[in-house]
Amino acid sequence: MRIGDSRPVRGTTGVARARGATPVGKDAGVAKTGAVGDTTSVLGIPEEEFTPKVRDAIMHLLEEVSALRQELQEGKARVSYLEKLADEDALVPVANRRAFVRELSRMLSFAQRYGGEVSVLYFDIDDMKQINDTLGHAGGDAAIMHIAKILSHGVRESDVVGRLGGDEFGAILVNASEKEAREKAESLAKAIAETPLNWNGQQVSMKISIGAYSLQGGEDASDMLEQADKAMYDKKSPTGRRA
Predict the structure, then answer these.
(1) How far apart are CA 24 and CA 71, in angstroms?
(2) CA distances (Å), 192 to each of 10, 40, 41, 152, 195, in order?
(3) Which CATH superfamily is domain 97-234 in?
(4) Mean pLDDT across the stretch 32-57?
(5) What digits encode the pLDDT tens for the residues 135-149?
(6) From CA 54, how far away is CA 93, in angstroms rounded?
(7) Which of the two residues, 15 and 90, has the higher pLDDT score?
(8) Within its chain, how far is the Cα of 200 from the centroid?
(9) Bridge partners of 197?
(10) Is residue 55 very low, low, confident or very high in pLDDT (cuts 50, 70, 90)?
(11) pLDDT digits over 104-139, tens only?
């Protein structure tokens, strides 16, 4: 699920989406035949059965209903836009940490109540300081966007990808065992290693450190993230790369 693409942030996520308003004629009893301004009938009743004053009043009412319907549609679109701003990372089109934790909590609650598997992946971009020092902060931002794009495209629509802060990312995998989560983490790390960043004509190789953790029992979102982060650091190699 990506926010704004969207999917599980690759996501996720409770966020209401603006949908077209229900046609007025369906719910409000407005004419099924004849739009506003129809001169042959009003509410399906022949025009000649109304006095001019009554007809004008009804037509005015229908025009107001049509205007309210349009305002409702515009309002839903504004709400959807504001919700996207609240849930999406400021730099990349994935869930921010708050939205990511909320979606993880929701998925954990569902899995613990009805049964199911939930796994969390934790990613850290290797040598981010060196990238910033070499390419500048604009290049560093490009590197973060590059990683976010690969992660988002590498998971399912039902999954959620989020930026947890700085050079750290997470992914929520629904109905994924620990083995499947580790395999997915490795495949994403491989995809990133094989897809260099193109920055001003320069090919910049990138790598990430990975950690995976699957729901064992009664963990909450904080527990899951902590364990996935710990798994990432526990795999730290003597060369400093945690993967």
Answers:
(1) 13
(2) 17, 65, 64, 12, 5
(3) Reverse transcriptase/Diguanylate cyclase domain (3.30.70.270)
(4) 66
(5) 999 999 999 999 999
(6) 53
(7) 90
(8) 30
(9) 204
(10) confident
(11) 999 999 999 998 999 999 999 999 999 999 999 999
pLDDT value, residue 233: 85
| Residue 149: CB atoms within 10 Å | 15
Provide DSSP, 60-73. Answer: HHHHHHHHHHHHHH
Give domain limits for the chain.
Answer: 24-87, 97-234
**Sign of dihedral through CA atoms 185, 232, 125, 237?**
negative
Question: Cβ–Cβ contacts within 10 Å for residue 26, how many?
Answer: 9
Sign of CA dihedral 190, 191, 194, 200: negative
Which contiguous run of DSSP H or E holds residue 214? strand 208-214
| Residues 124 and 181 sit within 8 Å (Cβ to Cβ) | no
d(Cα 212, Cα 170) in Å, to the nearest integer?
Answer: 10
Instruction: Please tell me the distance from the alpha carbon of residue 134 to that of residue 146, in angstroms, as a whole number.
Output: 16
CB atoms within 10 A of CB 20: 9
